[in-house]
Amino acid sequence: MRRIVSSKMTLALKILPLCLIVVWLLSTLNLYIRYLDGDSFLWLIAPLLIAVSIFYAWEFIQFKKISVDDKFLYVSNYLKEIRIPFENIDAVVEQSWKGVTYPIDISLNSRSEIGSTIRFMPEVRFGHSVEDSSSVIDELKRLAGAL
Q1: Buried/exposed 76-109: b ≥16 CB within 10 Å, e otherwise
Q2: Does position 109 have pLDDT exceeding 80, yes or no?
Q3: In total, how many domains does the chain have?
Q4: Secondary structure (3-state) at 118
Q5: I need a labelling partner for 113 at 20 to 30 A (CA). Which of 22, 88, 90, 106 fits?
Q6: How far apart are CA 7 and CA 104, in angstroms?
Q7: Structural domain boundaries, residue 123
Q8: Residue 25 Cα to chain centre, angstroms
Q9: Residue 17 sits in a domain of what CATH number?
Q10: According to the model, what pLDDT value does residue 54 have?
């Protein structure tokens, strides 16, 4: 039986931050154009704002929808879905350095059509601790035969 292990909010996590960043950049640039003269040092901040926005947008766009059954890992970027045998999983690592989001990276032994590293956000249930994501990691490692 196939079941989803990634967050049901994955599509929103991919699109919403990008929309907010675009609105924020356009609003900021509008303020620069309307209220600052061309000689202002604040124009130096605009490239930094754009670079930070691109970084954050890239981080969120990488999230994939993940589901599993007893033989395969199914990975979707919402344009294409591929099936990966569990034997192709090299490592499953939680990226806890990112603060409260805790995405999980799955490294593959060989490159797939979607890439060699798959990032997803596990389902987060309100009232449960963040350590619940470790059960997803343990399950993926077990299915891959890594434990």
Answers
A1: bbeeeeeebebebbeebebeeeeeeebbbebebe
A2: yes
A3: 1
A4: strand
A5: 22
A6: 11
A7: 1-147
A8: 21
A9: 2.30.29.30
A10: 83
